[in-house]
């Protein structure tokens, strides 16, 4: 990946190839190898790599996309469409897939389908110029010229530096008869890309059509410089040149010949069409050829010319038919075969083009340009060996042909035969008609080989022929950068900007050179200018982050690295420096996560392992830190800094003998460093060698009495021996020589805290906090001391203060939530408990505490949810399950509570509270038998519980067991004489068992508390009547009727009569 980042494709290829030798089923390696090959335009080989990637990971959507893209590049359009369609089914928002599938439809002439795909790609957010250009081309092909104009205009708006977009815009304007505007757009195209032959050709045609012969002639000259093999252009140029020089002989001869031959002959219209062709009036020429064919439909030359006119008009399908018809009449028409090859090439049907050019070479093997076109086509087909053979055939015919040598070199380079390619480019550069492109290609090839000095020399040779293109400048500057010729890079970049204006890549290279020269402010300025031009320039974002690190602007640096990570998640260096910036800000938890991700991507970075170990050590994750520093030392075994850190970690882990061994490995000059000596002494002390450690410290103090670290260590030795007063004295000395060392001052309070002297610890910490009021850790320690003294109000206040400074400390959030809960502030505690659970969602104790707090607040449903989470982690905790069941009952979820309650009782059948709760649930559900059983079980555990006894009374009463009910309810009243429900049941039972006077007395007591109870009045009256107390009964009945009566009395009377009848029998 590092080679890819540096654009060293060859090295990346061989690195991935070696990786696949070791792990041939690694889908990612196959995928990355395909990326390298695709960047080298070796698309057919890339296709094999992507297919292997999908073989071992069918869900690799990136490989699916790249497979379709490479198939498109080699003309496998029909095969690419199902591949891209499958990807779209899986990932419909992938605008790249839509665009490339549209391009395949376009190549196959399915313009409507292509348009649909391009529009979908745009809907999914594609902002590429290419999709709008292709959309415009489709509109042109189906005659929707205004829509084409809109599409190309949008493409130009997105990327005003895209010559193809301007060319397409001009083409649409021509179709709309806006020729003057088309000329302006073409001028922009060739200004951006002076080597854009098609744009020069169209510009020449438009000038010729408008009669501006001189400008047309100049434009044709540009075409011929770029494509000297274009015979049509050369002939048209000759005619225009003759007209320009007022020597009309050639044109006049042609016209006279046409007139002499007669206007209604095939020859007349054919020659007239040829003349119009040479004047670039292709539509008029086509009309002439059409008339010629009407007169002589069997003339193969006319059919060829007809096809040539159609080809010029970009009507490729019709052109192909005309060339084919010419061959049908004359299979040996070389020009027709060449025409078929040109049309097939324009349609990206390279196999068909190669077959046509091969026929042409068989018919006329002495045509140099045909062999070159055949070679170019074979290159497009990735058949590089065949391409080289074609170019070599051309060189046999014309040994000094610079184009053949140059194209041969390109094919050899694509075959990874870079040395042979260099020789070919050298031949091209040394020919009589050599052009700068040959030395530019020589420079590029040297660059790919990593021979940057040779690349620089070749670019400088190219400059002797004339100005080099913009993109070649970029490679030249990159070569200088790789050679660390920073001053040359700066001068070259400034010259580039002077010639061509600001360019993102050039500004980036300028910034890198300035960074290496430690001109950080200037470097940062140029990185930011780069990003203004290209917001997705990840290298600039990365280097801007590095520069901001050097300028100590850490938040801004982090922002840069995060943007790089968003764009390139596998850039391990960005993750590493992101972590480094977080460390500088003290955000260690985040830093650890980021560094681990960096190592997950690339685990051979000593710096990343070392920094991760340092972070983990600072966060007291010493076991992890030891593993990390071990990995670092595997990569660089003799690193003193890593050995010192390892010893420090071993001390923290209690592996003191190991620390001693590590200290012994540290070499000079670090071995004599006081910190190392003290660390060694500390390790000895922790191995139990107190005397030796104390002796070393004492000796060190003789020579360095004012060293607070030595006093600190002495205090620790004394603490280990229980000499707390002496330890406190030593810490006093340490603070004396380091009066601003808050850590030492804090340690004194910690010593007292660890000794269990919490009030004294609080007193010391409060003094420290008077000076260092923003020390969150000290506030947290103070809170812990208060918490140990069960002073939860004070503890929560201290924790709250600590939270002002320790924003992302999960332990602090937890402690604050717990102390707020224990101080009775349930509503406030829930906020903190929720905040903690967002970070640590698997803490069952906190889930339980949250559930209790919500329960106390009456939020029973929420409480049940929280308690259910706690129960997931402690499914065997019956107390927790019981609280969960209580919350379900309180929230009305009675049926949901029963399974959990049964689970509790299965484990603890003597759990009276559970039986009692189950009884309440069963009664509420109206299931009397189950309720009775539950009550019996509960009473077996708590026989004197009034609530359970009353529940038992109800079940007995409902089962018509009145005597036992009566006995039980009397026991309830004895224990709870003010229980109104018990009195009500007692009175009914007395009435039911015909104890009339007792029933009347009981109802008297009930009515004394509730005079509006119609049922009680009626039953009292009935009892009085049965007792012969008629006057009192009449008063009671009258009162009952005045209250409206009670409809349930009739049922009760029936029940009573049945009971009395049963008792009598």
SSE layout and pairings?
Layout: H1 2-5, H2 9-22, H3 27-39, H4 43-56, H5 61-73, H6 77-90, H7 95-107, H8 111-123, H9 129-141, H10 145-158, H11 163-175, H12 179-192, H13 197-209, H14 213-226, H15 231-244, H16 249-261, H17 266-278, H18 282-295, H19 300-312, H20 316-329, H21 334-346, H22 350-363, H23 368-380, H24 384-397, H25 402-414, H26 418-429, H27 436-448, H28 452-465, H29 470-482, H30 486-500, H31 504-516, H32 520-533, H33 538-550, H34 554-567, H35 572-585, H36 588-601, H37 606-618, H38 622-635, H39 640-653, H40 656-665, H41 674-686, H42 690-703, H43 708-720, H44 724-737, H45 742-754, H46 758-771, H47 776-788, H48 792-803, H49 810-822, H50 826-839, H51 844-856, H52 860-873, H53 878-890, H54 894-907, H55 912-924, H56 928-941, H57 946-958, H58 962-975, H59 980-992, H60 996-1009, H61 1014-1026, H62 1030-1042, H63 1049-1064
Report on the architecture of this protein.
The chain is mainly α. Among the domains are: 248-364, Serine Threonine Protein Phosphatase 5, Tetratricopeptide repeat (Alpha Horseshoe); 591-657 and 664-671, Alpha Horseshoe (Serine Threonine Protein Phosphatase 5, Tetratricopeptide repeat), CATH 1.25.40.10; 913-977, Alpha Horseshoe (Serine Threonine Protein Phosphatase 5, Tetratricopeptide repeat); 998-1065, Alpha Horseshoe (Serine Threonine Protein Phosphatase 5, Tetratricopeptide repeat), CATH 1.25.40. Helix content is 79%, strand content 0%. Helix 26 packs antiparallel against helix 27 and helix 60 (996-1009) packs antiparallel against helix 61. The longest helix has 16 residues, at 1049-1064. The model is unreliable at 1-6 and 254-263 (pLDDT under 50). Pfam families: ANAPC3, TPR_11, TPR_16, TPR_19. It comes from Methanospirillum purgamenti. One of its GO terms (biological process) is receptor-mediated virion attachment to host cell. TPR repeats lie at residues 27-60, 95-128, 129-162, 163-196, 197-230, 266-299, 300-333, 334-367, 368-401, 436-469, 504-537, 606-639, 742-775.
């Amino acid at each position: 990946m590092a080679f890819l980042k540096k654009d060293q494709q060859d090295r990346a290829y061989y690195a991935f190839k070696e990786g696949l030798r070791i792990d041939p089923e690694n889908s990612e390696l196959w995928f990355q190898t395909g990326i390298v090959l695709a960047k080298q335009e070796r698309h057919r080989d890339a296709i094999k790599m992507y297919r292997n990637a999908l073989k071992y990971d069918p869900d690799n959507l990136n490989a699916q996309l790249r497979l379709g893209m490479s198939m498109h590049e080699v003309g496998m359009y029909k095969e690419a469409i199902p591949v891209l369609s499958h990807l779209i089914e899986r990932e419909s928002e992938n605008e790249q897939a839509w665009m490339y599938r549209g391009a395949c439809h376009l190549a196959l002439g399915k313009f409507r389908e292509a348009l649909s795909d391009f529009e979908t790609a745009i809907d999914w957010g594609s902002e590429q110029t290419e999709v709008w250009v292709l959309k415009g081309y489709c509109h042109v092909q189906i005659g929707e010229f205004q829509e084409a104009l809109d599409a190309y205009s949008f493409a130009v708006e997105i990327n005003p530096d895209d010559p193809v977009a301007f060319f397409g815009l001009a083409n649409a304007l021509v179709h709309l008869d806006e020729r003057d505007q088309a000329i302006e757009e073409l001028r922009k195209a060739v200004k951006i890309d002076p080597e854009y032959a098609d744009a020069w050709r169209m510009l020449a045609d438009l000038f010729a059509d408008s009669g501006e012969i001189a400008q047309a002639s100049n434009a044709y000259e540009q075409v011929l410089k770029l494509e000297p093999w274009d015979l049509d252009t050369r002939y048209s140029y000759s005619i225009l040149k003759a007209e320009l020089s007022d020597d009309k002989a050639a044109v006049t001869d042609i016209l006279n010949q046409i007139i002499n031959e007669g206007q209604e002959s095939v020859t007349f219209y054919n020659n007239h069409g040829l003349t119009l062709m040479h004047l670039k009036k292709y539509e008029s020429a086509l009309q002439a050829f059409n008339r010629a064919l009407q007169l002589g439909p069997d003339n193969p030359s006319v059919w060829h010319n007809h096809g040539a006119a159609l080809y010029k008009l970009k009507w490729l399908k019709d052109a192909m038919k005309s060339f084919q018809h010419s061959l049908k009449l004359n299979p040996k028409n070389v020009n027709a075969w060449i025409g078929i090859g040109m049309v097939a090439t324009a349609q990206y049907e390279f196999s068909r083009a190669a077959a046509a050019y091969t026929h042409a070479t068989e018919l006329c093997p002495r045509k140099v340009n045909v062999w070159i076109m055949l070679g170019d086509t074979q290159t497009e087909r990735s058949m590089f060996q065949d391409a080289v053979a074609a170019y070599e055939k051309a060189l046999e015919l014309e040994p000094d042909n610079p184009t053949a040598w140059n194209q041969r070199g390109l094919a050899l380079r694509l075959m990874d035969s870079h040395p042979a390619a260099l020789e070919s480019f050298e031949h091209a550069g040394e020919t009589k008609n050599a052009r700068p492109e040959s030395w530019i290609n020589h420079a590029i090839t040297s660059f790919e080989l990593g021979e940057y000095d040779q690349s620089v020399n070749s670019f400088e040779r190219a400059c002797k022929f004339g100005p080099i293109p913009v993109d070649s400048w970029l490679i030249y500057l990159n070569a200088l950068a790789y050679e660390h010729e920073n001053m040359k890079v700066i001068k070259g970049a400034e010259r580039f900007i002077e010639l061509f204006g600001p360019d993102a890549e050039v500004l980036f290279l300028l910034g890198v050179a300035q960074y290496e020269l430690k001109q950080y402010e200037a470097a940062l300025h140029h990185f930011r200018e780069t990003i203004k031009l290209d917001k997705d320039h990840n290298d600039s974002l990365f280097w801007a982050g590095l520069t901001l690190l050097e300028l100590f602007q850490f938040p801004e640096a982090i922002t840069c690295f995060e943007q790089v990570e968003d764009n390139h998640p596998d850039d391990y260096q960005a993750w590493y420096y992101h972590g480094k910036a977080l460390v500088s800000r003290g955000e260690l938890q985040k830093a650890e996560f980021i560094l681990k991700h960096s190592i997950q991507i690339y685990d051979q970075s000593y710096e990343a392992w070392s920094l991760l170990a340092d972070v983990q050590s600072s966060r007291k994750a010493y076991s992890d830190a030891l593993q990390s520093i071990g990995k670092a030392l595997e990569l660089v075994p003799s690193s003193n800094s890593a050995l010192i850190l390892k010893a420090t970690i071993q001390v923290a882990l209690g592996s003191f003998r190991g620390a001693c061994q590590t200290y012994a490995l540290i070499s000079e000059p670090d071995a004599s460093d006081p910190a190392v000596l003290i660390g060694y002494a500390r390790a000895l002390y922790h191995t139990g060698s107190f005397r030796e450690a104390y002796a070393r410290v004492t000796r060190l103090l003789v020579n360095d009495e004012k060293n607070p670290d030595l006093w600190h260590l002495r205090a620790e030795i004394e603490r280990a021996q229980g000499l707390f007063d002496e330890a406190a004295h030593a810490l006093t000395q340490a603070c004396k020589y380091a009066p601003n060392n808050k850590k030492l001052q804090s340690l004194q309070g910690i010593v007292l805290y660890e000794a269990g002297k919490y009030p004294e610890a609080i007193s010391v910490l409060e003094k420290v906090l008077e000076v260092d009021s923003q020390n969150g850790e000290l506030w947290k320690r103070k809170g812990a001391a208060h918490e140990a003294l069960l002073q939860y109000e004070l503890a929560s206040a201290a924790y709250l203060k600590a939270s002002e400074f320790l924003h992302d400390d999960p332990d602090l959030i937890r402690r604050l939530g717990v102390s707020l809960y224990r101080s009775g502030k349930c509503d406030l505690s829930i906020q903190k408990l929720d905040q903690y659970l967002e970070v640590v969602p698997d803490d069952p104790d906190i889930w339980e505490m949250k559930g209790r707090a919500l329960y106390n607040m009456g939020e029973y449903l929420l409480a049940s949810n929280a308690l259910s989470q706690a129960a997931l982690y402690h499914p065997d905790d019956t107390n927790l399950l019981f609280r969960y069941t209580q919350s379900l009952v309180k929230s009305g979820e009675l049926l949901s509570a029963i399974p959990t309650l049964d689970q509790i009782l299965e484990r603890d059948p003597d759990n009276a509270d559970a039986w009692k709760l189950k009884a309440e649930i069963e009664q509420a559900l109206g299931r009397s038998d189950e309720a009775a059983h539950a009550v019996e079980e509960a009473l077996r555990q708590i026989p004197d519980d009034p609530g359970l006894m009353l529940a038992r009374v109800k079940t007995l009463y409902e089962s018509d067991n009145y005597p036992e009910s009566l006995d039980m309810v009397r026991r309830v009243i004895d224990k709870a004489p003010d229980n109104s429900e018990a009195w009500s049941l007692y009175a009914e039972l007395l009435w039911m068992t015909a104890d009339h006077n007792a029933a009347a007395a009981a109802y008297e007591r009930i009515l004394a508390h509730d005079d509006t109870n119609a049922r009680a009045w009626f039953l009292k009256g009935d009892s009085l009547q049965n007792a012969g107390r008629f006057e009192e009964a009449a008063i009671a009945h009258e009162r009952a009727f005045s209250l409206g009566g009670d409809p349930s009395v009739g049922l009760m009377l029936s029940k009573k009569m049945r009971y009395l009848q049963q008792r009598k029998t």
